[in-house]
Amino acid sequence: MNYDSLKTSLAAADDRAETSPVLLIPYMWIGDFVRCHTVVRVLKDRWPDRPVDVLTTTLCAPLVDYMPGVRQGIVWDLPRKRLALGQQRALAAKLREQNYGASLVMPRTFKSTIAPFLAGIPNRTGFIGEVRFGLLNDWRRGEKALPRMIDRCAALALPAGIDLPMDWPEPQLVVPPAEIAAWRHLNGLEGRTAVALAPGAVGPSKRWTYYAEAAKALTDRGLDVWVIGGPGESEKAAEIVAAAGPRARDLTGTDLRNGIMALAAADLVISNDSGLLHVAAAIGSRTIGIFGPTSAWHYAPLNPIEAVIETRTEVPCRPCHKPTCRMVHHKCMRDIPVEDVMTAALRALGAAGLAPAQ
Length: 358
Prior knowledge:
By secondary structure, the protein is of the alpha/beta class. It has 15 helices and twelve strands. The strands form two sheets. It has a six-stranded parallel β-sheet, with helices on one face. Strand 10 (about 270), helix 12 (about 275-285) and strand 11 (about 285-290) form a beta-alpha-beta unit.
């Protein structure tokens, strides 16, 4: 079944007129959080009049402001490695005030179901996961048979047992042009073609080796370079800026909103397989993704991007999906030359009428 056919069947469903709010509990990593906007779109196609709220951390909260179809974000920072029952009870009290009719729990963890249960949300949907019988009352099976994360997440927004499409609606982040222009003006970044580089990723194995060299090649062609990322990328950003010269800017920091603005304002984004890759793609920026230890089929954005760059040499251990290289050589990233990335970058800029001087 394709998604258009599915939408037609959802439009004829008996519960189409349901109006009670829905709480979505997504994964709280940036890229996964963005991908879960597809679930919001499916929910709005199924129930146009049901408000959809999203539980979020402080880190991910700025993303919610740019997600069409989301009524509000419920900002709550629960610790990752303990149950924190007192904080779960406090969150449950906050959720109870919203009178949710349903909750969708994307993560498979036991603790992710506690607050919806304590809040008394009538319908609590999720995969069985960590022995969550009782905490969930709409248990779903077959998670491991679904090939991609987006298939598993979006399935929870649909009736159990339905045939799933492979062409899900793409995540969307809509950044107003006026905000982009104001951000460029505030940061003194108006008027020149800029390429944003996102050299970070969760785990060193997903980080491409030659961002400094690429930055130098870009600035040598008269392009501006912006380095985007969190505080963990500040050391790498300093290395890239030092190599690239005065046309390069370090825009790393703790404020994700600043990163969103930079990715929306850039003329081209080059990123590892990271959360910022998904942010850029969902915004609709021209984006190139560099993949080493991970499979692009599984983890690339649903949104179309300019190019997926992978090594052209034979690396038998890839994809390993590991955060650190078990073989130590890191060939899956070291064997991607600067020339491959530059060729894709110049092609993308040229197609947009932004080709730099050679």
